[in-house]
Amino acid sequence: MYYLGISYGWHDPAVCLLKENKIIAICEEERLIRFKHAHLQVPINAIKFCLKKANISLRDIDKIGINWSSYEVLKHFNKPSIKKLPGSLFFFRDISRRKKKLQSILKLYFGFSPQIIEIPHHITHFYSSFPFSGFNKALSITIDGEGEKTATCIFSNKEKLYEFFIPNSLGLFYGRVTEWLGFKFADGEGKTMGLAPYGSNPELLKDKYSYANGKYWVEPKIYEYLEKTFGPRRTGEIKQVHKDIALSAQTALEEIMLHLVEHYQEITGYKNLCLAGGVALNCKMNGVLLESGLIKDIFIQPLANDAGCAIGAAAYLATQDGYKFKKLEHVYYGPEYSDEEIEHVLKEAKVKYEKISDPAGYAAELIAKGKIVGWFQGRMECGPRALGNRSILADPRNPKTVDIINYYVKHREPWRPFCPSLLDRAKKRYMKKPYDAPFMILAFNTTEKAHEEIPAVLHRADKTMRPQTVTRKANPLYYRLIREFEKLTDIPVVLNTSFNVAGEPIVCSPKDALGTFFKCGMDSLIMGNYLVRK
Ligand SMILES: [Fe+2]
């Protein structure tokens, strides 16, 4: 049985192909069309990639699911048909047309119109998380800007306990604050989170939200409130008020989530927590939940944004047929390129290159010498974090690395932090709460040793870090690279940032990688067994 999950309709369209309970391929459309978040795109290229990976055609797919449900829309507006919805409800009318729209587009590309099953948005977020958590029992929270109307949904195992509807949405609240801070909605929320530790007044928005008895409320017109009270949206320099508002929004999010977890944990009795939905990309919040002591174990779908709905849609259909999933150990499910393909691209570009026999050892040596290295290997990781197959790597020991990469390589704001990839066994050395964190989606407080040894991968203001703990099993080649770096330096850590420049998606193909390498200040590029220097 083949199951195809398709997430599309707004941002981060993606596709996931399952064969029974086995993930065959996952890919975000943005990587293939080179348009970050691929807003409003139908993921035709990602569908083609997934089918090619399994060597099948669309007709071989047994069930196709999408991450929106017209039934959910009509339920909320109490109308028997889409046609009865007024034009002013454009967004909702559009949701209820997505299935038909996709069917006609698929007909255009594949010659026939397949059956498509509509699945409520938050159900697809949920099925991207709990079934892949490895937990038998858990409390789950899905949390984003909005689904059909749901913004936050609470589950006890597979049973829905409670849901919050827009405009009472933490995702919209945080997103609108992000917008007022001068960043992009549904894109710059990570910048708000990164800015927050520079703030000093967490109370500025205190009366704009409340929580009690397993409920919460946030000011739906937060943007208008900020404009009226603190002036127009930021276009120039970041002032203290912006830092304070970022901190206040972050504090609101953390307090409300702590409250929800505490309340629903009392009801369910579960100490395991699963999260999904765009807000769960907030690694600071996730870290606060884990370190609160309320939770024993946490699983966060690394594709917490709507791209993950593709996994959830496919997993929902497979679960209906009785399949169960193993814990998600990695997300290297994207395209890969052979050495022949890589060499062809290098030759075509008339680039000087050399073949090397030990790319991991070579990369470690370059990094130890202070070089910034583009690292391109194996199947591309999906999700917003580079996890060692499409990464830019550097020395974590030198605090100046942060400014160099922000300025010369990533072309982004100087205060943005970088993250470490560390050998699994180094957790105790650097993390106050040693914990498996394979997906860079949890922030942790750090030890004195971390402050001394790896300053370039800690947030400058609060000394937290968002690590990727690397096991030999999940990524043997990357593990070896870090191990080789340790042999040279005694430090089992490298700085790992995604292989892209600001405003672009992570590179996918050798051609993307080569282009990015030459338009920024990286020193060397290692792709497969080939080395390119500047
Ligand atoms: Fe969502």
Query: Count the helices. How many?
Result: 18
What's the overall geometry?
globular
Under CATH, the topology of the largest domain can be stated as DHBP synthase
Q: Write down how many β-strands occur, each being a DSSP E stretch of 2 or more residues.
A: 20
- Distance linking N and C termini: 49 Å
Beta-strand portion reads 15-25%
Average predicted local confidence, pLDDT: 96
The CATH architecture name of the largest domain reads: Alpha-Beta Complex
- Rg to the nearest angstrom? 23 Å
Secondary structure class reads alpha/beta
Q: CATH H-level name of the largest domain... which superfamily? A: Carbamoyltransferase, C-terminal domain
Can you offer a commentary on this structure?
This protein is α/β, with parallel strands linked by helices and 534 residues long. It folds into three domains: 2-67 and 69-118, ATPase, nucleotide binding domain (Nucleotidyltransferase, domain 5), CATH 3.30.420.40; 135-302, Nucleotidyltransferase, domain 5, CATH 3.30.420; 339-533, DHBP synthase (Alpha-Beta Complex). The protein has 18 helices and 20 strands. It has helices at 29-33, 44-54, 70-77, 90-110, 121-127, 170-180, 189-195, 222-230, 240-268, 283-291, 308-320, 339-348, 359-368, 400-409, 427-430, 448-453, 476-489, 510-518; strands at residues 2-7, 14-19, 22-28, 63-66, 117-118, 139-143, 150-156, 159-165, 209-212, 215-218, 272-276, 297-300, 354-355, 373-376, 390-394, 419-423, 468-470, 493-498, 524-527, 530-533. Strand 1 (2-7) and strand 2 (14-19) form a beta hairpin. It is globular, with a radius of gyration of 23 Å. Fe (ii) ion binds next to helix 5.
